[in-house]
Amino acid sequence: MDIKKLANLLLTLGIVLLLAAIAWWVNFYAPLMKDLNAPLSDALDCLYSNTGACNLASGITQLLGKTPYNPTLFLIGAGATCAGVLLRLTAKSP
Question: What's the confidence (pLDDT) of residue 72?
Answer without folding.
Answer: 96
